[in-house]
Every structure is written in C-alpha cells, then in structure tokens.
Specification:
With 121 residues, the protein is of the alpha+beta class. It contains 2 helices and 6 strands; from the N terminus they run E-E-E-E-E-E-H-H. The protein has a 6-stranded mixed β-sheet. A hairpin with a 4-residue loop joins strand 5 (66-70) and strand 6. InterPro entries: Bac_photo_RC_H_C, PRC_barrel-like_sf. This is PRC-barrel domain containing protein.
Length: 121
C-alpha cells in the first residue's frame, strides 16, 4: 500500500513543486482545488477543497492517485471518479492529517478501488 502515498512514475510531478491552488480533475469532472499538500508518517496526500460540490467540505486524496500534473494549466488529474472521491472516508478536521489510523483507512480505501486505464489522447 506504500505506493498509494507516492507519486506514480510519469505523473509529471516534480519534487518540491507546490500544487496549492491547482484544479483537481477526476475522470468524470472537476473535484475542486488543492488547498494544501501534507506528509505525515510518510503518507503524502493532497487536501482538496471541493467548494460547493460536496457541501463545501474538503477531501483527502493520497498522491498515488495523481495521474497527471500540468503546471501550465495548473491542473492535477486523479485516477478515480468524483463519486469515488466523495465516498472516501470523511475528512473532518486538520488533525486527521496527523492521525495514522485515519490516514491508513484513507489509503486502504483508495488502494482497493478498481484500477483505471489512463486515456491516451
């Protein structure tokens, strides 16, 4: 499950790049924007502000779900659907980003999602 916490090869992520403010796009539409990047216990993730889409709440997405980073367009593409992100373990408070058990449950959820093919445009 460690790979869920690391950017995939070919994602376009460059170490040290700040993704804050980038639009996050799922396979079926926009999720929101990156509010912040965090790493606790070696579990790197993005906190994504969904705006009004999920009643104004934020969601946590492990960086292993990132399939593409476009620094010019300021977009981050993830390899899941909007519904899959919405159904992930609920993110309530910032302290959860430092809770090993919560992060493990999020990682387990995303790790169990069926693999998605990347589109060859």
């Amino acid at each position: 499950m460690e790979s869920i916490w690391s950017y995939t090869a070919g994602s376009g992520y460059v170490a040290g790049r700040d993704l804050t403010g980038c639009t996050v796009v799922a396979s079926d539409g926009t999720i929101g924007h990156v509010d912040r990047q965090a790493e606790h216990f070696g579990m790197r993730h993005l906190v994504v502000d969904t705006g009004v889409w999920v009643f104004g709440r934020s969601v946590l997405v492990p960086v292993g779900m990132v399939r593409g980073v476009d620094p010019e367009a300021r977009t981050v593409t993830v390899g899941c659907t909007r519904a899959q992100v919405k159904d992930a373990p609920r993110f309530r408070t910032d302290s959860e980003t430092m809770d090993r058990e919560y992060l493990a449950s999020v990682g387990d959820y995303y790790h169990r999602l069926p693999p998605r093919e990347t589109s060859a445009d």
